[in-house]
């Protein structure tokens, strides 16, 4: 694993167990406050074109992906997530996360503007989009919310700025 990408998980505040969303999930064992750093998603970096497919590789730059390690893969998608990514792959709480609550983020926030990837959603939220895709598939009001909460990785912010969707 690249030494510049380190997993820094507060293991005292999270645990991995079965999820109703998909397979295994990461759950809070203590209250996590709004804006609190949760973990850095990590894995093996691979260079590829932006058309890489699958929902496990995490896009962290225009042509750089992480083949996520097991703990990072257990953070599931939700259309109304309680966490979001900043920088390359740092996960922060977008609101207070209660003890026992599954930690989730919106996978579309990490899928670049040219990515053709889609996935059926099983998050069961009232605002579920049913099928999720790249960052441009996020409804405008939700994307604006993510921008205001600083819940978009740096490369996504650059891509959105380039096409005039981020000032």
Protein architecture, described:
There is one protein chain. About 15% of the residues lie in helices and about 25% in strands. It is of the alpha+beta class and about 170 residues long. Strand 8 (about 85) and strand 9 (about 90-95) form a beta hairpin. It has 3 helices and 12 strands. It has helices at about 70-75, 140-150, 155-160; strands at about 15-20, 25-30, 35-40, 45, 55-60, 65-70, 75, 85, 90-95, 105, 120, 130. The longest helix is centred in the last third of the chain and has 9 residues, at about 140-150.
Write the layout of secondary structure elements.
Elements lengths: L13 E5 L5 E5 L8 E4 L2 E5 L9 E5 L2 E5 L1 H4 L2 E2 L5 E4 L3 E4 L10 E2 L13 E2 L10 E2 L7 H9 L5 H9 L5
Parallel strand pairs: 7-10
Antiparallel strand pairs: 1-2, 3-9, 4-6, 5-6, 8-9, 11-12
